[in-house]
Structures are given as C-alpha cells and as structure tokens.
Amino acid sequence: MIDIWQTEYTPAEDALWLRQSTVGSWELCPGRVMQVEHQDYNPLPSEPMSFGTLVHEMLAIELEQGKVPWALGPVEDLWDTLLLNEYSVSLADLASEGVIHESALNAIGAVHLWRQQVEPTLPEGEKLIERKLEAPLGVLPNGREVWLHGTGDLLYKDKAIGFDWKTSGRDWKEGKATYLGQPSSYQYLHLYNHGVWVEEWRYWVYDRGSSTWRLHTTRRDKQQVMAWLRHAYGIACAIDAGVVYYTPTQSPYGKTERGWWCSPKYCSAWDHCPGKYLADEFDEKQSAIINWV
Fold first, then answer.
1. CA distance 243 to 260
2. How confident is the model over 65-96, as pLDDT tens digits?
3. What is the pLDDT of residues 229-248, one digit of tens each?
4. Which residue among 133, 219, 239, 263 is least packed, with the fewest CB closer than 10 Å?
5. Rounded distance, CA 10 to CA 147, Å?
6. With contact defined as beta carbons under 8 Å apart, do 20 and 135 qualify?
C-alpha cells in the first residue's frame, strides 16, 4: 500500500475504483460483486433499499434548503426521478399504487420525525452534505492504482463529528455500529480531503416498525482505520485478479443455514448465479423478485 496519510495523488485513467459499499457486498458474497457485468445481472433495488435512498435525498434537500412542505405527489415524483436517473426504470414499474403511496407517506413521516428527534442535535458549522469524496488506497502488484470513494451523508468542515442516516425495518442491535466498515472508510476519506479526524460517528437509524429515529455511535482510532483499509486493499487485489468464489451460507465454518442475502429477494445475480445451489429445501429455480408488490 502507498503512504496514504501523507502523499497527494491524481488517479490514473485505468485506476480501480472501490466503494465502501462494494467492500460490504464482498463480505456477504464475493460472487455477487463479480457478477455485476453479467448481462442478466439485475441492479434494481428492493423497496427497503430504494426507500432509504428516497429518505436520504429528502434529508439532503432539507439540510440545503430548510424545511420543505413535503406532499405525497412531489415526494413520489422525486422518488420516480431518482429511479429513472439511477436505473432507467419508473416507480410504477416496480410497485402498485397502494405500495407507492404507503411508502411515500412513511418517508414524509420519517422526515417530520427527523426534524424533531435528530435535527436539534446537529451542531452549527459549515456542513458538507452528501459530499463525494475520493482518496488513493494503494497500488496493486501489477502497478494499477486503487482508489476509494464514497459519499458522506453529513460531515463538517471544522468539526470532528460525522453523521449517517439509515432506514431499517427494525432498530439495529446494540453494538452494530462498532463493526461497520463505513466509519473507517469515511474517516480516511474525510481526513484525506479535509484534514479532519472525526472523533465520533453518529448513526441515526429510522426504525420503520416503530416510526422513530434511534442513535448508535462509534469511534475509530488510526490502527482500526488502517486495518479496514488493508482489508479493502486485499479485496481490490482479488477483484483485479478476477477471483470469484461464492458464500451462500451464513458462515464458512460449517453452518448449514442459507444466508439471507442468498435468495431471489435480495440477490441481483440470483437468476444466473452458479453458486446458489445448496443441499437444503430452498427452490433455486425461483426467478428473482423484481417488483415490490
């Protein structure tokens, strides 16, 4: 790896770009990451994933513009635009009108609660909202550069605190934020781009089941950040080398339970994946679920 703490670089044209989310996907199943370029790969998001994107966008607008009088029609139009821009698919192609209305109303409710429960906790200062960040991660044995990139929900130009919004069907288990790779990645990205070492990361999770925002915090030191960066660099080496293997089970240590990610509901590579077959009662001949109805 290069001296990531002190040297400034400009990415080469053939650089391998790695997102923190790609590292998370690799940790679930490397095979899915390596199937992204397959002609039958289905990139369409699930309703929970797309709902989270919608709420993120609404909160970014609120932070930029102040309180917005959100109404059902404009929110659904915003959601439709997000899907068209990212996936070239209309909202109406993925869900029934009833499902769309219910989810959009839920998003409006989430933003209203965010104003009450979260916004008052935000410090004053120059906000970096949905700021795209990039930084060098290393050079592969073949000389190819690796760059890390990501978009932080809310950082500050002059404050050692970072925020991230999450949406979930239920609240996170206690301690989950401790094991996330995301804080380490954004710790480095923010330091490299703005010279700020974040002392605390605050994850505000919107629990759709109970309609409330809940706070989870975590901290990182330099050794912990470096450990994650080395982990990410190793994944980049495997991606560049074309290494493909599949992890359909919950653990590599002999557990027989199929992982939740290995199903037609969650896996974008399900229809053409050769690694999904297990000696369980699951029907692998099912087609991928591509709508939210």
1. 23
2. 999 999 999 999 999 999 999 998 899 888 88
3. 999 999 999 999 999 899 99
4. 219
5. 10
6. no
161-168 and 200-207 strand pairing: parallel
In a domain, residue 119? The reply is: yes
Q: E-strand spans in 80-190? A: 127-139, 145-156, 161-168
Provide the domain count of the chain.
Answer: 1
Provide the pLDDT confidence category of residue 119 given band limits of 50, 70 and 90: very high
Q: What is the pLDDT of residue 252?
A: 58
Phi and psi for 224 in degrees, rounded to 5? -65, -40
Tell me: pLDDT of 223 over 60: yes
CA-CA distance, 119 to 211, in Å (whole number)?
A: 16
Identify whether 278 is part of a domain: no
Strand segments (E) across the chain: 16-19, 127-139, 145-156, 161-168, 200-207, 212-218
CATH number of the domain encompassing residue 62:
3.90.320
Cα(258)–Cα(97) distance, integer angstroms: 33
Q: Which two tokens stand for residue 98?
A: 């009833």
- The tokens for 167 are 């949406």
User: Does residue 120 lie in a domain region?
Assistant: yes
Res. 8: pLDDT tops 70: no
- Secondary structure class of 258 (helix, strand, coil): strand
**Is residue 138 within 8 Å of 233, Cβ to Cβ?**
yes
The verdict on residue 281 lying in a domain is no
